[in-house]
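Hi R.,

Here's the chain you asked about this morning:
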Amino acid sequence: MTLAAIVLSAFAFSRWVVRARGVEVPSAPGARAAPATPEPELVAIYGGSATRGYPFPGTWRASYPAVLEALLHARGLGAARVLNLAFDSAVVADIVTAMERDLPRLRPARVVIDAVCNDWLSRSRDYRANLGRALAVARAHGATLTLVKEPMLLAVYGRGDFRFNANEGANYAVLTSFASENGVELVDPAPLLIAHRDEFLFMDDVHLTARGHEVMAEALAAALAPALAAGAADGAPP
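And the predicted structure, written out as tokens:
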């Protein structure tokens, strides 16, 4: 046996010994790790200040992601966890960057993006391209993407101080067509909000009251619960 063969044999034996003892050994340079299995009842929600729960802290338990978690528990999904990963002034391009950072570590089965209003400076083709990037990142990490038509006072009551600019109005249409063309679930909370329009739902043109967050959570729970339940039963992403 040559000296090189002896060295290689010793190296292989040493790796077998440390693995047998439960010590993790890094893979050879250039080797690709297998994608991590998503958590079947973990939902990550991205959006802007309206999702975060403005003007309250991010830990506000009345924000719709927090209420959604409670509603999922009430529907029998006791292991469901909903993460509020929204941040102020978020546009879809920034959300994609956050997803690239978060998803490898968090491994959610479902990613929800609720972001239209802050993209008022984004042209339609750029907004569509960023939605495509978000979908690609979600799928690369085994997650299912859900898009939300971000509600506004104008859509619910037909009035408000805020008016769409040309980009923003077009981006709502882009969101709808993108979802349809790519088989992405699109949740529109406006009908349920309209059904409760006699209640105090909005603090201003885009930010919800505690009751508004409750109604948003109800709309999302109705959309997400069946798929999450099926995913949990199968042990696979919904």
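The radius of gyration is 22 Å.

Let me know if you need anything else.
M.
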